[in-house]
Amino acid sequence: MRRSQLVTTYGVGAMIAIDNESFIVAGIDSWNIDDATEIFERRLAKVLKVKSFRLPPAPDPDRGDDGVRVRRFPEFYSCPKCRVLQPFSAFNCLPGRANCPTCQEDLLPSRFVLACDDGHIEDFPYWKWVHRGSEQARGLCGGTLALRTEGNTASLRSVVVRCTCGVPDVSMEGAFRVKALRELGIRCEGRRPWLSGAKPQPCTRHPRAMQRGSSSAWHPVMRSALSIPPWGEGPRGLVEREKLIGAPENAIRWHFEKRPGLLKRADTTIEEVIEFAREMSEDKPTPSESGDTPVDPHTVLRKEEYERLCRGNPEQRTSEWQPFVCEKPEGDLTPVHALSLAEIMVVKRLREVRALEGFTRGVAPLESEPEQRLAELHLSHDVNWLPAIEVKGEGVFVRLDEDRLHEWETKPAVIEQVEQMRLNHLALIRERTPSNLPKTSVPKSPVSPRFVLLHTLAHILINEWSLDGGYPASALRERLYAGDTMAGILVYTATSDSAGSLGGIVAQGDPERLAATLLSALARAAWCSNDPLCMESGASGAGSVNLAACHACVLLPETSCELNNSFLDRTLLVGAPSGAVPGYFQQIAAVN
User: Fold this and answer.
1) How far, rounded to the nearest angstrom, does the alpha carbon of residue 108 sit from its chain's CA centroid?
2) Per-residue pLDDT for 489 more than 90?
């Protein structure tokens, strides 16, 4: 598998099927990172409280060196011929083999596991399931479990578990109901098999049965940041790359005695490098740490990016590679100003670092969800890094007219339209917040007319640019900047190779072309093949946090949306057909 998959798809705690066996990726404290490339992104590292990031190790396979480690999971396997169902160790297989010693058939890992929303996972309790209602004490029946499939269907009713002790056979039908497991006294044991030597944690969550290959068995919690000036380039970037943060002055001078070319490429002097190395070693508190009012550090990251996107960063004709180039497009901006857009910036080059902070299981995490659900990636206190990938690409930044936006978002009809969405989101947050936490610790919902409008606008632009920009929708991503002082979106493409900088998206930043694209996108958003059901929907999507949004109009592939296709409503763009809810672009869409 690719390195990026070890962060986004098969990260720590995820299950991997290899041939006829199944494994779970072990914690990063067991990885051999001798050959792992170090990635620097100081802004993100400071928020996540780590020193740096590393690419998942990928040593030369011919050398057979250690790298990413995995552990066997689930533990239960079955033989397709004799039907025996038992832990893998009980089969006494030969080293390097996974077949039944009696039948010489390849063993099959258990299809079912038990997991809770806090990330704990364990084998499905087959013994308890088949002995339900019997008076047998646990594990004292003396029988052997067997698993067989009856009939020609793939339903759970056809999967039957039996025990040779004589209890009636039981199918797996109903095993996916949480209530059924609760009635049997099956509780979450708090097990973390991906961490070596991890003791079970106390857990009050109710576990649920899952298919081993289900997408709900592992949800990554990703954090990302753009590399913006002055971080990552010039003398600051040189200090990071050469690992000189906090280094003594004499060590820095010795380091560059035989490397004058490094200073020349960075267009700096040894004195500046010494000054920045000392400055960067002083860990200044973030606004969230220094102020009385708590501030989300990730919001601070977005505000810094938003300000830099608005300000721009022209390309410098130097030998040093610039990770961020942002300029105003050539041409007259009158066509886009007429569409209530205040500004366009074409991002000709960008670098994004995406780090895996943790993961969850069960329901996918929502925006502003409590971090109590975050499953840890390691147990060691000595680990000061996180797995991450570095991607490069291009994009277009669009900022809305603040005056026009404020006038629209304060209208009572607009506020009422979004209120039910916000209440549904709050109900989801309360439902997923552990009962032992005080109510004051429950976070607020970010849902607002501005937030939903910007999110939906990003979706219709991505759908439109997937037709004109040369990239599929799954290769484009959104980055929202919504807040009291922010009203912009960045639509960009970012890949780990050069394919992310072919110029197809930057070309869409031409004012006349962007105006035509937005008009076309609004025309598509005004009508959906599922109308009137879609437009008149009172709630849709997972958790009922969408309104007028479905796969036929504004939903995107999972790789494109940073909010799991939640908080969308095209009514806020084009208005309701009845006229009860005014859309931000309603007059424009009506004229065209």
Assistant:
1) 31
2) yes
Mean pLDDT of the chain: 85
CB 377, CB 28: distance < 8 Å: yes
Q: What angle do CA 307, 310, 316 make, to 5 degrees?
A: 100
Nearest to 569 by CA among 541, 589, 592: 541
Tens of pLDDT, residue by residue over 326-384, are 999 988 899 999 999 999 999 999 999 999 999 999 887 765 554 557 899 999 888 99
Task: Tell me what the mean pLDDT of segment 10-25 comes to.
Answer: 92
Element (H, E) at 346: strand 341-360
Question: In angstroms, rounded to a whole number, what is the distance separating the alpha carbons of residues 71 and 106?
Answer: 19
Which amino acid is present at 321? W
Q: 435 vs 67, 114, 208, 312, CA distance in Å?
A: 40, 22, 19, 46
Contacts of 216 (CB under 8 A, 6+ apart): 210, 361, 362, 363, 364
Say what the pLDDT of residue 317 is: 67
Q: Tell how far CA 530 is from the center of its chain.
A: 29
Q: Decide the pairing of beta strands 112-115 and 208-211.
A: antiparallel
User: Residue 258 above 70 pLDDT?
Assistant: yes
Q: What are the Cα distances from residue 225, in Å, to 26, 182, 244, 280, 491?
A: 26, 42, 22, 18, 14
From CA 258, how far away is CA 585, in angstroms rounded?
Answer: 60
Rounded to whole angstroms, the Cα distance separating 405 from 132 reads 60
Alpha-carbon distance 568 to 575, whole Å? Answer: 13
φ, ψ at 308 (rounded to 5°): -70, -35
List 57's β-bridge partners, or say none. Answer: none
Pair of tokens at residue 574 = 């084009």
Q: How far apart are the first and last CA of the chain?
A: 48
Please answer whether residues 98 and 20 qualify as being in contact, where contact means their C-beta atoms are separated by less than 8 angstroms.
yes
- pTM of the entire predicted model: 0.86
Reported as a pLDDT band with limits 50, 70 and 90, residue 286 is: low
Q: What is the pLDDT of residue 265?
A: 75
The C-alpha torsion from 385 through 389 and 392 to 395, rounded to 10°, is -90
Cis omega before residue 323 (within 30°)?
no
- The answer to whether residues 88 and 77 touch, using CB atoms and an 8 Å cutoff, is yes
Convert the pLDDT of each residue in 60-112 to its tens digit: 777 666 889 999 999 999 998 899 999 998 888 888 888 888 888 899 999 99
Q: What letters, b where the CB count within 10 A reaches 16 and e where it falls short, cover 6-44?
A: bbbebbbbbbbeeeebbbbbbbbbbbebeebeebbbbbb
Rounded Cα distance, 95 and 536, in Å:
61
In the predicted structure, residue 114 carries a pLDDT above the cut 80 = yes
